[in-house]
Amino acid sequence: MMPRVIRAAVCGIYAVCTLTIVVIAGGCTTTGQTLGSTVVQRNTVSGISAEPPVLSAAQLALLARRTQREEELLDAPLTAESAAEIALLHHPSVERALETLGMPGFDRLRLAHLVNPAFNRGRPPSTVETRIEKPLSVNLMTWVIIPALDSSGSTEERTARVQAADEIVALLFAARRAWVSAVAARQSVRYFEDVVVAVEAGREIMESMRRVGNSSELETLRAQTLYADAVAHLTTVQVTAAIERERLVQTLGLWGMDAERVRFPERLPDLPPAPVGADGLEARAIAQRFDVHAGRLEGLAGEAGVNARADVRTAWLAYRGAYDLARHMRDALVPLANRVSEEQLKLYNGMLISVLDLVADATERINAVNAALGTERDFWLAEIELQRAMSGVGVSAVAARPGVQGGFRPGAAYHVH
Q1: What CA–CA distance (Å, rounded) separates 52 from 14?
Q2: Contact status, residue 376 vs residue 330, Cβ threshold 8 Å
Q3: Average pLDDT for 263-289
Q4: Residue 65 is assigned to a structural domain of this protein
Q5: How far apart are CA 39 and CA 20, in angstroms?
Q6: pLDDT score recorded for residue 203
Q7: pLDDT of res. 128
Q8: Whole-angstrom distance between the N-terminal and C-terminal Cα of the chain?
Q9: Which domain holds residue 21?
Q10: Gap between the Cα atoms of 262 and 243, Å rounded
Q11: Highest-confidence range of 178-187, 197-206, 218-227, 293-302, by mean pLDDT?
């Protein structure tokens, strides 16, 4: 029996094909044929058939193995690498690119997990450093670079092959970026759920105190405003998390029940103990970047080398800056916010500040944690960008970022005068 994922994909494709033929046939005059017989008849001009093609035993076995691997990956919370592998195994654009490279129906599991035996005698490049050059990306590149850099054919054909290889490898980095954004957005939702709980408790206390005359109308209104702002901000981050999830699902090429199965870890990974140094990065990039090899093929080695060095330097500077900022936020800002909260609690216990002051301080502490999360997200995105720059595919995602933006600011959405 055909596996569920394969069956759903095949049925979906041929349902669209059948509908298209029905519409075309409905607009034509037929003689001696019913509409149904027209639909099932092979269109001799376009070669489209309403009947699914018969797959060989080898093709069915290949699809079954690929589907089994996808099931295994979806059974666990996604990581950046498992997200990239799902995109490679499942996204329909990969097959189109493989056809352009002369590799139609190629086993994508081999692309993901094996080095091409025809590349460097089956060994990965000696310049690979696995902290940056991930095995999945390296394995895939060894398969697509050979047909992509084939000098045969017209200029248009060579350009199409280079573009196809670039698109397949760039898809991995797009999936990793989408995963980081989705996990960070979901983590931000959990933080602001804590904010809402805290300020709601403060609002209820202030309303109770107001009823017995221990709080002014102004203090009660401020507590209500704080709660309204918190709910508004929580709604914003919930929408952002939903959108980031959909973007990830789209990047992976999933739909239906498979899309619903996507799960995330509780949080982003911890920062690494130390960043990757800049020593040797440019030389490694020149030796292994895909666009440098393609430039040499077209007689543009000098220009490709200059662009590669600039791309890698820019990516590393953004990466190093993101690491330093994320570490500072984690080691300095968050501990300071916690210390302030401890002191505020002492003042409250001494009846020197109000409940509202205590709740507002708790909100500031959670904002500090949320800001730290934002810098951690930016670091992991910067590391993925450095990975992309070392591979020489896709388009640079580095952009100047303004200073750290605060999260939830009491009174930002509602004002009481």
Answers
A1: 7
A2: yes
A3: 93
A4: no
A5: 9
A6: 87
A7: 60
A8: 69
A9: 1-54
A10: 14
A11: 178-187
